């Protein structure tokens, strides 16, 4: 079973700042890694799949990178609507697994 | 654009049963695999179960194996999760989610339905 670990758990950021979120897999998942955004009271929404491909309608300020066991989600300039929880998910092996999440909050 | 709508969440006593439904609409194909994902209050996401597009193949997380059963009625574009022998730790918002073709990331999510297991 693959364990996904996200860091940091919480990130306090000011609008306009660059944000880097990390996700690590306990064994290689290739590029089979997705990122989701979840705002309070809402269901998650797909941001990135294939480690680096933005989902339909996702702004270019979101970018994903990495392969194997180390992955990164970058928000180039944080907007007010980006304050949310972010989750990574591996889909290379069963069972599917999510990271514990990173909360991006207003500084 | 496609939509997923869950229903059936309720307050149930430990040891009880519940059946969740997820109605899909607006998708050009009804053949993709789908999953249930849950989120305990204030906590992260946990994959629960997957069912294939045909409905003949299923997978389950160890935490629910033997207690939960996924099924689907393709004629009604509806997914079901039968939950038996419910435990306090099954308390969560349950989301149904649609996979993208043969890739098992979650392309679409429903709004979720709350299951509370408590005496």
How would you sum up this structure, described in words?
The complex is a heterodimer of chains A (about 110) and B (about 120). Chain A has about 110 residues and is mainly beta. Chain A is about 0% helix and about 50% strand. In chain A, strands 2, 4, 5, 6, 9, 10 and 11 form a seven-stranded mixed beta sheet that branches. By secondary structure, chain B is mainly β. Chain B has strands at about 5, 10, 20-25, 35-40, 45-50, 60, 70-75, 80-85, 90-100, 105-110, 115. Chain B starts with a strand and ends with a strand. Classes of the chains: A mainly beta (about 110), B mainly beta (about 120). Chains A and B meet through strand 5 and strand 10 of A and strand 5 and strand 10 of B.
Give the secondary structure arrangement, pairings included.
The complex is a heterodimer of chains A (107) and B (119).
Chain A: E1 4-7, E2 10-13, E3 19-25, E4 33-38, E5 45-49, E6 53-54, E7 62-67, E8 70-75, E9 85-90, E10 97-98, E11 102-106
Parallel strand pairs in A: 2-11
Antiparallel strand pairs in A: 1-3, 3-8, 4-5, 4-9, 5-6, 7-8, 9-10, 9-11
Chain B: E1 3-7, E2 11-12, E3 18-25, E4 34-39, E5 46-51, E6 58-60, E7 68-73, E8 78-83, E9 92-100, E10 103-109, E11 113-117
Parallel strand pairs in B: 2-11
Antiparallel strand pairs in B: 1-3, 3-8, 4-5, 4-9, 5-6, 7-8, 9-10, 9-11
């Amino acid at each position: 079973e693959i364990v996904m670990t996200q860091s940091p758990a919480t990130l306090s950021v000011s609008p306009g700042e660059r944000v880097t979120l990390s996700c690590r897999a306990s064994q290689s998942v290739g590029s089979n890694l997705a990122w989701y955004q979840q705002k309070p009271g809402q269901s998650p929404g797909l941001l990135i799949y294939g480690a680096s491909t933005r989902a339909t309608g996702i702004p270019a300020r979101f970018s994903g990178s990495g392969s194997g066991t180390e992955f990164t989600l970058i928000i180039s300039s944080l907007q007010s609507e980006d304050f949310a929880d972010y989750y990574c998910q591996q889909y290379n092996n069963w069972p599917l697994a999510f990271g514990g999440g990173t909360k991006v909050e207003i500084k | 654009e496609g939509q997923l709508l869950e229903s059936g969440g309720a307050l149930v006593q430990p040891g009880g049963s519940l059946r969740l439904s997820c109605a899909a609409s607006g998708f050009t194909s009804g053949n993709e695999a789908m999953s249930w994902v849950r989120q305990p209050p204030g906590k992260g996401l946990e994959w629960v179960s997957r069912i294939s597009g045909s409905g003949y193949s299923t997978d389950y997380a160890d935490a629910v194996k033997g207690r939960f059963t996924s099924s689907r009625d393709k004629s009604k574009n509806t997914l079901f999760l039968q939950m038996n022998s419910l435990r306090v730790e099954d308390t969560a918002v349950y989301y149904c989610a649609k996979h993208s073709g043969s890739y098992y990331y979650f392309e679409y999510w429903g709004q979720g339905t709350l299951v509370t297991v408590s005496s």
